[in-house]
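Quarterly update from the structural biology core.
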Amino acid sequence: MYIDNLGYLPEIGYRLSPDKVAIVQGDVALTFGELDGRCNRVANGLIGLGVGMGERVALLFPNDYRYVESLLGTMRAGAVAVPVNIRLGYESLRHVVADSDARVLIAAKELVEVAERLADDVPAVECLVAEGSRHRRAVGYEGWLAGASASRPNVRTGPDDLCLLPYTSGSTGLPKGVRLHHAGQIHNADAMRRIFLLGPDERALIAVPLYHANGLCGALLPFLLAGASVVILPGFDGVAVIEAIDRHRCTYTTGVPAMYKLVLRERAALARSDLSSIRFLACGSAPVSVELIEQLGRTFPGAAIVESYGLTEGGPVVAVGPRWGIRKPGSTGLLLPDVEARVVDADGVSDLGAEEIGELWVRSPGNALGYHKLPDVTAARFTPDGWLQTGDLMKVDSDGYYYFLGRRDDMINCGGENVYPKEVETILIQHPDIVDACVVAAPHELKGEAPVAFVVPRDPAVADADALKAFFLGRGPAYAHPRRITFLEQLPLTGAGKLDRAALAKQAREAALSTLPT
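Predicted structure, tokenized:
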């Protein structure tokens, strides 16, 4: 079945089984037929507001089925959906809505206050669609939906037309809009469906934010494309995840290591729940220790535990561990179908061989068409022949399995030796007394910079920095050992649930450095 508009991704489920449940959230269960009708109402409602082809609609939601129908409906109208990270500070939120030139802002009821402020502060916003708003330019969501037709809109989009304008985290400045097109995102969802051999009998649990690629592209879109069901949680909570798996017989979920560790702590909930329905788990965005994989294997017996790699501009999903077959701990897996990759030297000229570390370049049907309003940045990251320079350090083994070693900007030049933080972290978390670790650079009088580690011990009372250094020196190169180890109760996370490496790097720079050993 050919689909040329990402908004019609649930078409297979709708055509084959319109009465089958597509989305579950709390006590709400939408069938594929009901989801189709509500998406059409969103599309026709936007057209009624004067939204035209290629115009932007900003979406301000936590995880919610209304976010899903607003996202898909926006694209059915031929418009471009702008998923907004609701955990951003207000100035970044305002920048995203203003920079995108969004004409309409659709918001959740619980976010009405900030949505009204954005509607006042961003002149381009002509209408706010939100339940409970008394803003002079607002309409209530459900009333607006009820007044629109459930028939499919007479809109045709082209394969290279934009469908999504997500904004990157902006760790080095303001968030940047990434121009994603229909054909690319349909390909990525279908590639995920194919590599996981997804069918209508699957049921995904989504507890990660749907405004990020992990939840949206790693779960929602490929599962809906397969005619499968998704269960949405409004946010992450360890007990809620366990109970949802049990209640809804979920077969898959995705998360970051910190989330899974919190799930494993909920011993009482685990003991009273049946988790046998889980067939496979995806884990990424941070080092995944062998111990964590083993713990997950014991908790979810028979489940495949796969790691993955991706970035908004490059697919978003680029590589993933196979659901069946050989899985290598520490590897982000194999390339998705039709994705090309190169590992290149520091000059970006020569391809490197197996096990050599270099920058990953990706050429994929899902590659972005560039950055919104940033032609110079686009030219710097995308080559004329279609390669995206990711800025990520990788190596690939002789079997084609990729290993993520961190950002090129995170690499530490310690006295002329290249130190890759992820390699140091991987050794540190092998220690039986260590739960988690993050390695960053700190200025060093003799070396220029040197690695320091922030570590979460299993028992703070017996944490021993000298013993941990000795453990590393027995397994890794001396030049890469952490010159200072700081013990923390937990590592900081970003709003997306990822490790906040920038916060720890700032802390390392601000710490007293005169006593760093050589």
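The longest strand covers residues 434-444.
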